[in-house]
């Protein structure tokens, strides 16, 4: 009887230790927390209360492959990398372009698609190409590659930074900016939703979208890359993209 009590006590304390250590890490290992900014259709956007889109479906398929449950945390685009760095999120999936600067702070998975920056102007705009932007007022989404690119390339332009791409487009419609520089697919969506604006044929940059992972989490990065590799090969990624983006 004495021994029995001892065993129960030992088992109880082991259980407590285990649950304590689970508490300490603050996160359930079975939940894959995705940081995103749901203002970037067709990659992530709100459909009434739900966040949907290409990135959401890719992350869902990824989580399933890893045997995990996906949880989405919506935040400002500029907060995503900090969330990943501090462990508040496991992955950042937000149509996010791999850049040298971002690589100083996080690791990126293999790319899952490519994109480029385009210029949106009003139908009757005098702006015909990228050179015409040099001394204009340009709207961008803050801390995106569009922002970084025009800030570097157009020192004489006035750059207006918005927290959402759609706000930059509203500013264009209201005549507050002369052009908007933004990723090609969201540009297509915004132009299709608003009369009187168009995308110029000239585009710049070639960018790769990938998933951001903490530099401290190489194990997760490896598992994500393996899963992405499979999803790229077996057509899962393509069919998700095709569901949201019609060719042409
Ligand atoms: N691809 C751009 C970037 O990484 C924009 C992403 C976004 O606005 N969600 O900066």
Report the average pLDDT across residues. 92
Largest sheet: 5 strands, mixed
Q: Look at the structure and name the CATH superfamily of the largest domain.
A: Periplasmic binding protein-like II
CATH class of the largest domain: Alpha Beta
Fraction of residues in helices? 40-55%
CATH topology of the largest domain: the name is D-Maltodextrin-Binding Protein, domain 2
CATH architecture of the largest domain: 3-Layer(aba) Sandwich
What is the molecular shape? elongated
Report the order of strands and helices. Answer: HEEEEHEHEHEEEHEHEHEEHH
What is the number of strand segments?
13
Number of helices: 9
N-end to C-end Cα span? 77 Å
Tell me the strand order in the biggest sheet.
Answer: 5-1-6-13-7
Computed structural class: alpha/beta
Structure description:
There is one protein chain. The chain has about 250 residues and is of the alpha/beta class. It folds into 2 domains: about 25-110 and about 210-245, D-Maltodextrin-Binding Protein, domain 2; about 115-205, Periplasmic binding protein-like II (D-Maltodextrin-Binding Protein, domain 2), CATH 3.40.190.10. It is built from 9 helices and 13 strands. It has helices at about 1-25, 55-65, 80-85, 100-105, 145-155, 165-175, 185-195, 220-235, 235-245, and strands at about 30-35, 40, 45, 50, 70-75, 90, 105-110, 115-120, 135-140, 160, 180-185, 195-210, 210-215. The strands form 3 sheets. The protein has a 5-stranded mixed beta sheet with strand order 5-1-6-13-7, with helices on both faces. Strands 10-9-11-8-12 form a 5-stranded mixed beta sheet, with helices on both faces. It has a 3-stranded antiparallel beta sheet with strand order 2-3-4. A hairpin with a 2-residue loop joins strand 3 and strand 4 (about 50). Helix 2 (about 55-65) packs antiparallel against helix 9. The model has no long low-confidence stretch (mean pLDDT about 90). Bound molecules: glutamine (GLN).
